[in-house]
Predict the 3D structure of the following.
Amino acid sequence: MGIIVQKYGGTSVADSQKIKNVAKRITQSHKDGNLVVVVVSAMGGSTDQLINLALEISEKPPERELDMLLSTGEQVSIALLAMAVSELGFQAISLTGNQVGIITDGFYSNARIKSINNDRIHSELNQGKVVILAGFQGISIDDEITTLGRGASDTTAVAVAASLNADRCEIYTDVDGIYTSDPRMVESARKLDQITYDEMLEMAGLGAKVLHSRCVELAKKFQVPLSVRSSFHEGEGTIVTKENKIMEEVVISGVTSDKDQAKISLIGLPDTPGVAAEIFQALADASINIDMIIQNASQDGTADLSFTTAEKDLDKTIEIVSEIKEKTGFNNVNKDCNIAKVSVIGIGMKSHVGIASKAFRALADAEINIQMISTSEIKISCVIQEDQTENAVQIIHDAFELGQIDSNA
Amino acid sequence: MGIIVQKYGGTSVADSQKIKNVAKRITQSHKDGNLVVVVVSAMGGSTDQLINLALEISEKPPERELDMLLSTGEQVSIALLAMAVSELGFQAISLTGNQVGIITDGFYSNARIKSINNDRIHSELNQGKVVILAGFQGISIDDEITTLGRGASDTTAVAVAASLNADRCEIYTDVDGIYTSDPRMVESARKLDQITYDEMLEMAGLGAKVLHSRCVELAKKFQVPLSVRSSFHEGEGTIVTKENKIMEEVVISGVTSDKDQAKISLIGLPDTPGVAAEIFQALADASINIDMIIQNASQDGTADLSFTTAEKDLDKTIEIVSEIKEKTGFNNVNKDCNIAKVSVIGIGMKSHVGIASKAFRALADAEINIQMISTSEIKISCVIQEDQTENAVQIIHDAFELGQIDSNA
């Protein structure tokens, strides 16, 4: 029998009725002949409630104690889910991160999994039980409870699936799967049957919120097939897997957008070596992530340098570049929050030409001005004016015929 | 420096403001030069909330999973309390039952502590930290989370105090200490400065709800001085300790009452050996606790047998005795819920005569009929009509002058 790892997020176990529904799904998979390991998040809303309690006591609670507090959320949901599975007449056992032996590096609130001990899981599976694990949490070698960062139950599920050499990892969530674009923005957006890890990584990084990058990276590293599907409806969802022949024929998998972007322009920089390095080092030291960068040399021996960052980091970025204004010698700093990034992603770009020009042409025909461009092997991103985002996404989606099932290039 | 163990119940940590107040008390004791170990219950009401969640899913949830669920309550309160102590500028660390190494016998929902590992506690105390432990929970040798039964955080505190050889164990609660009688019933009830373990055991068993018998038994066994005091007001509270000279001079420590009593009478039993044994064996097999027993032989060679039990067990008791009616040969069974037990407790009874007659005389003068009597070395209990309870308690309290500080015999 093969092992299936199923992961249910907070919205899927938000109340007792939803927990009972999840128990039905789990037992169905068990009845289908699978060895089922389940990873669960805290009940929807409960983590926020715990954080609010902590903030009533301390504005900046010690991270160790915050992890001690937050890890109770998953312990509640695994116990309740094990009760619900038992209530249906099946054997179930819940296990905390400590009981499983999910060993982490000990960094509170953002720990990384170092190893997973499978002995207990195998032993319980061999007794015919459904094994229900707490997501999001682990234990350091010093016996300290550590959490993996918000949304990290997906990561737990993939790590457990990799460790158990599971047939696949099913991520149950509040959407049906991965779409060619955000269905709230593009009416003709279509659910993908499959997508590669690399495409999913680009989509996750570019604004598609279904899976966290960290979980996809881990799945790619250990070649764990991911199945993203709805916990509320039936249906196959989307398989995230390694590249295969069929996928290579599909040129474009999706179009994403991200409005949480700001552009900073430094005007009149001296065009001498090392200036850009100095600026980006200062920003890196402050943990500010820079996305796109463009430098234009002017006729007068100076240059203009533009770059983008997350909108929330804008004020800090302005502060830092202002501090080094004299040292680096630029004249002015301009900022622009009224921008967005629209991206086209597809593994098939590697072997097809003309993708970029097709996207640029589509935007140009709609009189949407492209301010910045960056590309990777499987992605093209354009910075445009923010209020043109929906239009741009729709136009590119149409240009590549992503709403149609059979051809999209 | 001496070690002080402080225990705070659920009402003392029911919200963030109360948790902050508890943190102030703790740090005061730390500043006074003590090594402070704190045992905390779940926030008031949270255990009931968790139980209700479980009952929404299953009428009879598996006990293992219920323990997994309920143990989160204390984990929340220790984390929040550690945050509150840190916020006051002191070092604090919270520890779960697992992290301390509170090893239990593995009986879910009603486990007993087998051993406590002090290494981690000593190590944290030596680093100058206030150590905050989860009450109510432990871990079996199979790494399973077990709880000690409701209200058992007191037991955790005493066990930890015994294990650490602490100077004393302070139980903070919502009353000021142990009273000569229930102050809601007897206006002149007086707080006792001290009371012996044995008296406290009788009081706990006879309806005084401040401390659980199990915690007092443990304190007696390991000679841990208990201090019962209010977590909301200042004041010394009551010391529960071993017998000493001063205490022996005090004849009576308290008067308690218990209305949760029922009397069952079996009429016309054949007066032959083994009949009573048969009846009480059948009740013991059903885990029904019998309190007082009286047998009267009649002239006609039959006997009447009366006994008391908790009111909640009455229906089951009637059912069981009815099943063996033919076998044992009695004629009728009568039941009476309209009774109560009033008890007088005092270590000084051992060395003073006339206590029982004084109590009986006081009740007789008030025309309160005594239906049954049972005594121990330090206790006299009388069964009376339920609606005379308050009056009887008041009369006995007055007869022994318990409201006055200097003399009470």
